[in-house]
């Protein structure tokens, strides 16, 4: 199938909702933690899209912080600045999905080349993957920060190929984010959609993933021949 797998990080390898426990400890109403986490993530992505359209690039961490500020205001949760600082720190140490390490190990055993490909800065992603115990599974970390654009700008997928000297036919994006999958396919790459929520629809744009899997273990099942 592939000579190179480029893994999205946030939401694909790393559980962005792993911050819910921290939110439960800091919100006056812990029952709102899941909603806060979801809106924080949605606004984080929205801010990156808007900045991309405006040509007003900033580090992804700033999008994350501004999204946190917005969500706090929108839900009127009145977090203290110390709480926001702590939550940002927690976002830098989010957990990996439970099957990620084993799936990556299986891919390594059969010689599949894997890189991390993220909206996050190289420093942030390196720290995040190291904390999650996944850094050693990747040959490279490719960040959009190197071109000052955000996914799904075609320039970031071109940069991925150029940086790794890879042909489109040999390059696969692996992502749980439909916008990322569509962006990669639009740019001429192959893509695997990790459909972590079995009820989640794919965007009806007429651009489909090459394959759809439930999680990274299912991706490894697809790629690794049965013994």
- Return residue spans where pLDDT drops below 50 for at least 5 consecutive residues: none
Question: What's the alpha carbon Rg, rounded to whole Å?
Answer: 17 Å
Overall pLDDT: 95
Our measurement of the CA-to-CA distance between the termini, rounded to an integer number of angstroms, reads: 18 Å
Shape: globular
Structural class: alpha/beta
Query: Strand tally, please?
Result: 6
User: DSSP helix count?
Assistant: 9
Instruction: Give the helix level as a range of percent.
Output: 40-55%
As a percent range, the share of strand residues is 5-15%
Main sheet strand line-up: 3-2-1-4-5-6
Order of helices and strands: EHHHHHEHEHEHEEH
- Largest beta-sheet characterization: 6 strands, parallel
Structure description:
The structure is a single chain. By secondary structure, this protein is α/β, with parallel strands linked by helices. It is 46% helix and 12% strand. It has nine helices and six strands; from the N terminus they run βαααααβαβαβαββα. The chain has a six-stranded parallel sheet with strand order 3-2-1-4-5-6, with helices on both faces. Helix 1 crosses helix 2 and helix 5 packs parallel to helix 9. The longest helix has 22 residues. It is globular. The two termini are 18 Å apart.
């Amino acid at each position: 199938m592939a000579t190179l797998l480029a893994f999205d990080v946030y939401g694909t390898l790393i559980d962005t909702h792993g911050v819910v426990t921290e939110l439960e400890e800091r919100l006056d109403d812990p029952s709102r933690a899941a909603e806060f986490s979801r809106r924080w993530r949605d606004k984080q992505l929205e801010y990156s899209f808007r900045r991309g359209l405006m040509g007003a690039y900033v580090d992804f961490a700033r999008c994350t912080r501004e999204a946190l500020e917005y969500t706090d205001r929108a839900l009127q949760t009145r977090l203290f600045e110390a709480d926001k600082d702590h939550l940002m720190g927690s976002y830098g140490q989010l957990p990996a999905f439970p099957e990620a390490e084993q799936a990556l190990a299986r891919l390594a055993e059969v010689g599949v080349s894997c890189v991390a490909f993220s909206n996050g800065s190289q420093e942030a992603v390196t720290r995040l993957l190291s904390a999650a115990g996944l850094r050693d599974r990747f040959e490279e970390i490719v960040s959009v920060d190197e071109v000052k654009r955000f996914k799904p700008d075609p320039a970031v997928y071109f940069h991925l190929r150029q940086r790794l000297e890879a042909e489109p036919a040999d390059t696969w994006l692996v992502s749980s984010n439909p916008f990322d999958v569509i962006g990669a396919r639009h740019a001429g790459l192959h893509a695997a959609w990790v459909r972590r929520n079995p009820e989640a629809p794919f965007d009806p744009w007429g651009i489909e993933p090459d394959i759809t899997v439930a999680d990274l273990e299912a991706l490894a099942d697809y790629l690794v021949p049965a013994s």
